[in-house]
Amino acid sequence: MKKLYIYVSILTFAVLGSETNAQNDISMATHWYNRSNYNPASIAKPDYIYLFTNVRSQWTGITGSPTVVNIQASEYIQNLHSAFGISMVSDNIGVTQTINPLLTYAFVIENDRDWRLSMGISGGVFSRSINGSQFEAENSNDNYLFTDLERTTRPDANLGLEFQSSHFIAGLSSTHLFSAWKDTTLFLNANHQYGYVTYKNTDPVNYNYSFGLQVVNRFNRTIFEGNASIRFKKPTGLSSGPTEIFSLGLSYRSSKEMTCLFGVNINHDFRIGYAFDKSFIPGFSQNNTHEIMLEYRIPSRASSTQTNNRNTDFWYY
Questions:
Q1: In whole angstroms, how far apart are CA 42 and each of 17, 32, 50, 87, 277?
Q2: Is there a contact between 36 and 169 (Cβ–Cβ < 8 Å)?
Q3: How many domains does the chain divide into?
């Protein structure tokens, strides 16, 4: 219990240390499937090498609207009680492009038969470039017009803690730690704090369902998001249990955005997902957002915990 108190205290100290006002974290609707963009502790997924990628086109129809490409890979090593991951995020907005490559490590603090607690940290760089040649100026002869390519790169790190059991997921995390307590002119992205809890029920034979709530804080702005999802299953009659076929989900954010999520399981380890965002913000209500997701698992002996856990499938959340 003392060890757990120390870990929680470290994370709380990081979460509360935000006094900045720079660029927002990337926005993703499918974070309910994969939380490692903002919580590195969530890569501690046993039994598999985990691959995840998604592409998000936001506010279609607006010139220079955001486009995000996200690629991730991770593996849990049972003998080390640790997970190792790598990720790359590219975010294009108008004449600005950011890239955020990170290496991630997560350690399982407690690995009980029915629950686990993990803590993770990720480190890398956050780089932003501005291409002045893409500006469309009214007066091309303006001597003050910026036409060069300028890139700025800073160190970056995230920290998180996550609890999982057969029916609950809960986590706390803090992103872009080097920007905490710093002026916005020194760093490129603002420190964000995340808190979330999800109830999930995998007991019914024909479906799984879950309800989740997330709170995100960035300086003086707090966003609440709720989610409800159902995953339909096909009974197989085998000892391994039923297999998932497809899933439906609905999210709503207090920033006046609603998301519909849809996923199809190609097989037990490969899933394709799609998310459709509808904004109710004045000026953006006619411009929707689309997101495509690919999720793949590769069984791994080094990751296997089947002798320790009663149910391995519920970790796949």
A1: 22, 11, 11, 13, 24
A2: no
A3: 1
Supply angle C-alpha 256, 258, 262, rounded to 5.
165
Q: How many CB atoms lie within 10 A of CB 90?
A: 16
Q: What is the pLDDT of residues 234-248, one digit of tens each?
A: 876 655 555 788 999
Contact 60, 290 (CB under 8 A): yes
DSSP 3-state percent helix, strand, coil across the chain (nearest 5):
10, 55, 35
Residue whose structure tokens are 């004045």? 282
User: In the structure, what pLDDT confidence band is assigned to residue 1 with cuts at 50, 70 and 90?
Assistant: very low
Distant-in-sequence, close-in-space partners of 117: CB < 8 Å, separation ≥ 6: 4, 108, 109, 110, 161, 162, 163, 164
Residue 289 has pLDDT above 80, yes or no: yes
Region of poorest pLDDT, from 27-31, 167-171, 255-259: 27-31
Q: Please give the full DSSP string across 226-243, using - where no structure is assigned.
A: EEEEEEEEE---STT--E
Residue 162 sits in a domain whose CATH number is 2.40.160.40
Torsion region of 67: left, alpha or beta (phi above 0 gives left; psi -120 to 50 gives alpha): beta
What is the residue range of 179's domain? Answer: 2-315
The answer to whether the predicted template modeling score (pTM) of the entire model surpasses 0.85 is no
CA R_g for the chain: 20
Tokens of 6: 């120390």
